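Q: How would the structure tokens look for this protein?
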Amino acid sequence: MEKEKRITLGPRADGKTKSLFVRLFGTANSGAEYVVQSWPGLYRRSLFDLLKELSVAERSAIIDSYNGTAITPWFAGIAVSQHVADSIELEGLAAKWEFDGPALVRKLDAMRPFDSACLEVWACGFWEQVGTPEEVPLERYIDPRSLV
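A: Here is the predicted structure in token form.
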């Protein structure tokens, strides 16, 4: 079996993140490596469970609401319900996708921050891959089984 080639990443972090990583992992690099290496599995597991709780229309509307949106780590997972609520009100997403807007906002309000962060990364990820050779159509992208 051929060993997978590893790449070197150089993420930037603030002092609080470095201090936390040193406290929890011994070194900042060990902490960063743990987070980067564990992210794909944690993301897929969390998102798989989360997407099963949302209807196809709700998933589609969430992705639609993130069209043209940039996300930042400083606000990860804390504004998803407000973002979607604004899109429902200002862009008429509930009517467009035929779902209960207030019910979706209540579901999003009840999510834990990590789940919300995974959801916004997923929604923005759809738009990042549009127009690339690896583009996945919306119908397949919103299927939780496509994550596995």
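Residues 28-52 form the longest helix (25 residues).

The chain has a mean pLDDT of 92.

Upvote if useful.
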